[in-house]
Amino acid sequence: MTVHRNCYGVTDNRITGKWTCDMCTNDKNPQVSTQYKCVLCPVDVREHDFVGPPKTVSTHKKKMEKEKERERIEREQAQKTADYYRKKQEETHRPVNPREPLKRTFDNNWVHVTCAVWTPEIKFGKAKALGPAEGISSIPRGRYGEVCHVCNTQTGACVSCHLCKASG
């Protein structure tokens, strides 16, 4: 996982290359749940692409065929790279996908930093370190039953715009 120090609450002054995220620290000596899933949202894992979208589209037919072939080769190589990466991660018992930026909750679960920051009931015991997140139980149950207008699911606690909610 790659994060800005301030965005994740890295407060110690250790060498940047020696920093360990909260989940990896917990893996070494489990103190809280090892089920690394946000209690406020349905996002479990984000798949990461190893190749970007095509860059330009050509109108010349011969050039288009060459570009298509090049893109096909790039996709195949990216898939081989992804397969190799996954295999190596599994062999070393590491996460296949980069970990989500989760922080420990007061009741020993996990929450995304962004979910916690955007949920008004959530406070952090240590503000600079962004942890542990407190106040999960104070979120009204009804907020868990609302349908999110971004992902269209009814999983997790939603937040509403004060103005839109009041007028809608």
UniProtKB/TrEMBL annotation:
Keywords: Metal-binding, Zinc, Zinc-finger. Residues 88-168 form the PHD-type domain. One of its GO terms (cellular component) is Lid2 complex. It comes from the Eukaryota. Residues 64-94 have a biased composition (Basic and acidic residues). It holds the Pfam family zf-HC5HC2H_2. This is PHD-type domain-containing protein.
